[in-house]
Amino acid sequence: MNPILRILERTDGSVTSIIEALTGERAKIKTIEQKVIGASPEIAEKLNINEGDEVNFRVVDIFSAGIRFARAVSYTPLKRLDESFKRDLMSADIPVGKIIRKYKLEVRREINWSCIKENELGKCLVRNYSIIHRGEVLINITESFPFSAFDGLRWE
Amino acid sequence: MNPILRILERTDGSVTSIIEALTGERAKIKTIEQKVIGASPEIAEKLNINEGDEVNFRVVDIFSAGIRFARAVSYTPLKRLDESFKRDLMSADIPVGKIIRKYKLEVRREINWSCIKENELGKCLVRNYSIIHRGEVLINITESFPFSAFDGLRWE
User: Fold this and answer.
1) Do A11 and B20 touch (CB under 8 A)?
2) Closest by CA position to A115, among listed A125, A123, A107
3) Would you tell me the crossing angle of helices B3-10 and A3-10 to the nearest 10 degrees?
């Protein structure tokens, strides 16, 4: 696996910052799907909320320099968001890491698992982590990084 | 500048995790210097404390796979540390990022500046950032990353 993917597998920092460092260009988000759902038992457990609680479900692709570097599928309990964060998350194409920096939230990222698998983007590094704020899961994210996007990169 | 250095310049995550991802081996810290000092006017301003307040000054080198990847010079106001964090910082060779994860601290990293310059390690990327916890500077760190350590890396 190339060293950038090894870094993305383990980092507890913003993935968007890493992608922007690679290309030298701003990352852009394309929202594929975004809706509010009631938490299933599985999601309720993952987020430590009650079944049926409102959750924002968001699927976005992260592009930079015209390359799709990642797809991120996230679940966010609405009751843990303040209004401005919620507005940015639900109606604007802003990466989560940037929203967190914008509002100067203090967080930690807890990586739950990672693996290599084929999905709709081809062969990918896939990892799941939670962003924790005030001791609670603010967001649970599953990111897929297609090998093809990173294999095209070369050292200068 | 090679892509790993570009990532290190911008990341708001743990530098140790990135170095460990590169080598596949645990990072080790070698403490070069560690002492408690009274804050000078400049340090007091940087940390938002009073002149003369006690500050831990620490210089460490970060090694992995036998390579020195970074030197980190840090200033930490002692009054903002709880006892266990203080003990790990002052008497154990543990990277700051690992101490933060160990105690599950929620933080944000605010990057203040970066530049390329020659210092005692040769030509380096140098950056300064603060780790913020509960709205206060917990640590201010200046990291030097010698180009020579990273230029030796190759894609697999």
Assistant:
1) no
2) A125
3) 20
Residue A156 counted as domain residue: no
- Choose among B10, B132, B153: nearest Cβ to A3: B153
**So what's the pLDDT on residue B80?**
93
With an 8 Å Cβ cutoff, is B90 touching chain A? no
Residue B156 lies in a domain: no
In this model, does residue A72 exceed pLDDT 90? yes
Of A100, A108, A155, the CB nearest to B155: A155
Contact B95, B64 (CB under 8 A): no
B150 phi, psi to nearest 5 deg: -90, -25
pLDDT for residue A100 is more than 60: yes
DSSP state of B78: G
**Residue A138 parent element (H or E):** strand A136-146
Read off the pLDDT of residues B109-156 as tens digits, 9 standing for 90 and up: 999 999 999 999 999 999 999 999 999 999 999 999 999 999 877 655
Find the domain containing A14 and state its range: 3-151
Burial of A1 (0-12, 13-18, 19+ CB in 10 A): middle
pTM for the model stands at: 0.92
Residue B107 lies in a domain: yes
B7 interfaces chain A, CB cutoff of 8 Å: yes
Domain with residue B100: its CATH number is 3.40.1410.10
pLDDT of residue A2: 87
Please state the domain count of chain B.
Answer: 1
pLDDT in tens, B75-109: 999 999 999 999 998 888 889 999 999 999 999 99
The answer as to whether B115 is a domain residue is: yes
